[in-house]
């Protein structure tokens, strides 16, 4: 008997004929008949019940279906039930991060690729399609184009969720060849989309190959950028942690933006990673109406540390087309940084940075780096000593 299930994300459904092989820790749903058994892990089941169509989002929010349809034509939406359950009221900090808004279409300021991540915008020649090689010794490697929740402020709004831009295995192999050929690369950041949208088998295949290439390079590490501990913590399982543990040194960079995202489920996920010896850091994006308040940001940083997650960066929101309504002025970020520094443990203090437009790299937003602030722009000096301009919100 043939059983067909829609492919959730890039996941491969495991076909198993022996019920003894089913891990209880996956808390799986099982569908079976005499000849075949389909194992659906809990996280895939949750993902399968996500809101994605305009009608479903309209029913939940009360927004006009026509408006949501127009937004989703350009910028896909998907909100899984777990993250949706964190919404307490309309326009609260969780709602703003996940619910499509007509402002995304009216915000025409900025660029689709302001950080020059795509190969045609990079300074180096011959960089394959899935790689951003900005810094001398490290690269970003996009292995997925999908997420468990599409953040409305995403830097990669131009491509995430687009089924025509999902990485192919041929492209992944080209990226691996690039890492192999460039011996100066010692740090590989797997990114997306969200790498943890891949099933365990495919994800381990990629990690294993990267680890093999880097094994003899001095001080080599692998990092994985994922919002799963925050937006779908059920994805973090003992099986997944065991995979990560096989390829040390491996780090997880996750992404929390508000104290309301710290829940028993997200705490369990982060502590499970830590218990398996996997260091976890978190980056946050400074977002208007979400966390642009010193007390909110301090509470978030303290909450992260309480579940063994090290605050890493606070990013100034990138000038990405369709996200201008999320941006704050740089002075607000400096105000928040000053309110955190000295008012809580140093362990709770992340670095406030601007990812300089035109591929300038991350620049600490502190006086020794910021050269000039006017009503129109911020002039900064990056790690190479070059000047870059960041446009102010009007």
Please provide a written account of the structure.
With 394 residues, the chain is of the alpha/beta class. It has a domain at 119-391: Aldolase class I (TIM Barrel, Alpha-Beta Barrel). It is 29% helix and 19% strand. It contains 13 helices and 15 strands. The protein has helices at 42-48, 54-61, 65-74, 81-84, 93-98, 103-106, 169-181, 200-214, 228-231, 238-245, 264-275, 294-306, 330-340, and strands at residues 14-15, 29-32, 37-40, 131-135, 138-142, 187-191, 221-225, 250-255, 280-286, 310-316, 351-356, 361-364, 370-373, 377-381, 387-391. The protein has a nine-stranded mixed sheet. The longest helix is centred in the middle third of the chain and has 15 residues, at 200-214. The termini are far apart. Residues 1-34 have low confidence and may be disordered.
Q: Could you tell me the mean pLDDT?
A: 89
- Name the beta content range: 15-25%
**Low-pLDDT ranges:** 1-34
What can be said about the biggest beta sheet?
9 strands, mixed
The arrangement of helices and strands along the chain is EEEHHHHHHEEHEHEHHEHEHEHEEEEE
> What Rg do the Cα atoms give?
21 Å
Please give the count of helices.
13
Looking across the biggest beta sheet, what order are the strands in?
A: 4-5-6-7-8-9-10-11-12
User: Could you give me the name of the CATH homologous superfamily of the domain at 119-391?
Assistant: Aldolase class I
Structure summary, number of beta strands? 15
Describe the global form: globular
Query: Which architecture name of the domain at 119-391 does CATH use?
Result: Alpha-Beta Barrel
For the terminal residues, how far apart are their CA atoms? 61 Å
């Amino acid at each position: 008997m043939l059983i067909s299930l829609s492919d959730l994300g890039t996941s491969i459904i495991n076909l198993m004929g022996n019920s003894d092989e089913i891990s209880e820790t996956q808390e799986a749903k099982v569908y079976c008949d005499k000849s075949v058994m389909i194992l659906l892990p809990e996280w895939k089941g949750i993902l399968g019940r996500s809101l994605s169509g305009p009608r479903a989002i309209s029913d939940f929010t009360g927004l006009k279906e026509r408006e949501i349809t127009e937004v989703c034509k350009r910028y896909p939406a998907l909100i899984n039930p777990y993250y949706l359950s964190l919404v307490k009221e309309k326009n609260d900090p969780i709602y703003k991060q996940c619910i499509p808004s007509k402002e995304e279409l009216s915000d025409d300021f900025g660029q689709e690729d302001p950080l020059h991540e795509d190969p045609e915008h990079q300074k180096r020649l011959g960089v394959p399609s899935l790689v951003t090689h900005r810094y001398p010794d490290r690269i970003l490697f996009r292995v997925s184009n999908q997420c468990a929740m599409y953040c409305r402020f995403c830097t990669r709004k131009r491509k995430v969720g687009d089924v025509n831009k999902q990485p192919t295995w041929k492209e992944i192999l080209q990226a691996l060849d690039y890492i192999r050929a460039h011996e100066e690369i010692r740090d590989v950041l797997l990114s997306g989309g969200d790498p943890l949208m891949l099933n365990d088998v495919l994800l381990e295949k990629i990690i294993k190959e990267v680890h093999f290439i880097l094994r003899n390079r001095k001080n080599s590490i692998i990092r994985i950028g994922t919002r799963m501990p925050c937006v779908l913590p059920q994805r973090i399982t003992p099986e997944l942690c065991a995979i990560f543990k096989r390829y040390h040194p491996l780090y997880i960079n996750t992404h929390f933006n508000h104290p309301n995202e710290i829940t028993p489920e997200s705490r369990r996920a982060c502590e499970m990673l830590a218990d398996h010896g996997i260091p976890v850091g978190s980056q946050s994006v400074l977002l208007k109406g979400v966390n642009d308040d010193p007390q909110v940001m301090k509470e978030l940083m303290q909450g992260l540390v309480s579940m063994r997650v090290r605050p890493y960066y606070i990013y100034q929101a990138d000038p990405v087309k369709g996200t201008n309504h999320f941006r704050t002025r740089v002075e607000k970020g400096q105000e928040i940084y000053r309110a955190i520094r000295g008012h809580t443990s140093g362990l709770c203090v992340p670095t406030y940075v601007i990812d300089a437009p035109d591929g300038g790299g991350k620049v600490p937003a502190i006086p020794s780096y910021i050269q000039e602030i006017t009503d129109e722009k911020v002039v900064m000096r990056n790690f190479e000593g070059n000047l870059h301009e960041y446009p102010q919100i009007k």
